[in-house]
Amino acid sequence: MRQRQTLIRLFTEADLRADRPVALTAAQSHYLTRVMRRGAGDSLLLFNGRDGEWRASLASVGKRAMAAWPAEQTRPQPPAAGPWLVFGLLKKGPSELIVEKATELGAARISPVRTARTAAERVKDARLTAHAVEAAEQCERLDLPRIAPLRPLDAVLAAWPTERRLLVAAERAAAPPLATRLLREPSPTSHPDGLLIGPEGGFDDWELDRLRELPFCSLVSLGPRILRAETAAIAALACWQSLAPAGAFDARQQVE
Ligand code: SAH
Q1: In this predicted structure, what is the pLDDT of residue 132?
Q2: DSSP 92-120
Q3: I need a labelling partner for 229 at 20 to 30 A (CA). Which of 1, 56, 166, 216 fits?
Q4: How far is the centre of ligand 1, averaged over its atoms, from the C-alpha of 128 (Å)?
Q5: What pLDDT, on the 0 to 100 scale, is given for residue 5?
Q6: 203 CA closest ligand 1 atom index
Q7: 65 and 45, same structural domain?
Q8: Same domain (yes/no): 125, 58
Q9: Is 155 among the domain residues?
Q10: Does residue 253 lie in a domain region?
């Protein structure tokens, strides 16, 4: 247990199997050798979102490149069980913050959307993914959230699987608190809820009217104050994970 805390964890795209070497990227090799001063023979943990977590030994290949030899699986891959986050795209910094925190808080999917009042127009998918990778490595998560490309909210709603609830965070609306809603009707383990957060300017009235009419949508409140959109996303996910159905986040407990 103590040792686990000191081991570096890295995400890799490669398959993880006993004694099948994993080539580390130049950035990972640099980080391990130059920043963290690790070398051949040292242990680290690897995960790829499919094969669980593996303890591996570092080996040098060439002057700068490193490889890792998986030795034993330390945790099996848990099923993806987190909520889906849909958020009105914000500027670069706050959007990246949302992805980082949503990864820590267990979101299984993250979809930035364009709404009537979104001001930001573009997002670099690769930057968002990089933030998700870093957050997953740090928080001991064993998978990455799926980050969808930026789409109009309408397109996301049109493709929404209707058996999955979409809880719409709406300030200034007569809506029950998210926690009350989750306690009364827990999120089904087979298809955890979606959470929808508006952009800085909030939703337009016609958007909220439209959302109210969709059978899978319900409006919820996050408390009496008007939160910044990024705060609202983090607050909603924190509330959701603290009330998540037993089993959704207990894969680690099964092993330890
Ligand atoms: N500019 C708007 C506020 C938008 S806040 C206004 O002044 O009216 C940005 C988003 O965060 C909102 O669209 C909503 O999804 C969420 N949000 C912020 N505070 C909230 C609250 N108290 N309850 C529910 N959602 C909230």
Answers
A1: 98
A2: HHHHHHHHHHHHHTT-SEEEEEE-TT---
A3: 216
A4: 23
A5: 52
A6: 13
A7: yes
A8: no
A9: yes
A10: no
- Percentage above 70 pLDDT, the chain: 93
- Tell whether 129 and 195 lie within a shared domain: yes
Parent domain of 56: 9-75
Tokens at 26, concatenated: 């130049």
pLDDT digits (tens, 9 = 90+) for 17-56: 998 999 999 999 999 999 999 999 999 999 999 999 999 9
- Summarised one tens digit per residue, pLDDT across range 130-179 is 999 999 999 999 999 999 999 999 999 999 999 999 999 999 888 999 99
Clarify whether residues 55 and 138 are in a common domain: no
Put residue 41 in one of left, alpha, beta given phi > 0 → left and psi -120 to 50 → alpha.
left
Whole-angstrom distance, CA of residue 194 vs CA of residue 208: 16
Whole-angstrom Cα distance, residue 129 to residue 96?
Answer: 9
Q: What is the CATH number of the domain that holds 60?
A: 2.40.240.20
Q: Measuring from atom 3 of ligand 1, which residue has the nearest CA?
A: 202
**Model pLDDT for residues 109-135, shown as the tens digit of each residue:** 999 999 999 999 899 999 999 999 999
Q: Is the CB of 167 under 6 A from ligand 1?
A: no
191 within domain boundaries: yes
From the CB of 66, is ligand 1 less than 6 Å away?
no
Place of tokens 């809880």: 167
Q: Count structural domains, the chain.
A: 2
Residue closest by Cα to atom 20 of ligand 1: 171
Percentage of the chain lying above the pLDDT 90 cut? 85
Q: How far is the CA of 228 from the centre of ligand 1 (A)?
A: 7
Which amino acid residue places its CA nearest to atom 11 of ligand 1? 229
User: The whole model's pTM is what?
Assistant: 0.92
Locate 177 and state its tokens.
Answer: 């608190």
- Nearest alpha carbon, ligand 1 atom 1: 201
Q: How far is the CA of 129 from the centre of ligand 1 (A)?
A: 26
User: Which of the listed residues 95, 217, 226 should we mutate to test ligand 1's pocket, taking the one with most ligand atoms within 8 A of CB?
Assistant: 226
Report the chain's terminal Cα–Cα distance, integer Å: 9
Q: Using the mean position of ligand 1's atoms as its centre, give its distance from the Cα of residue 152 in Å.
A: 19
Q: Does one domain contain both 43 and 155?
A: no
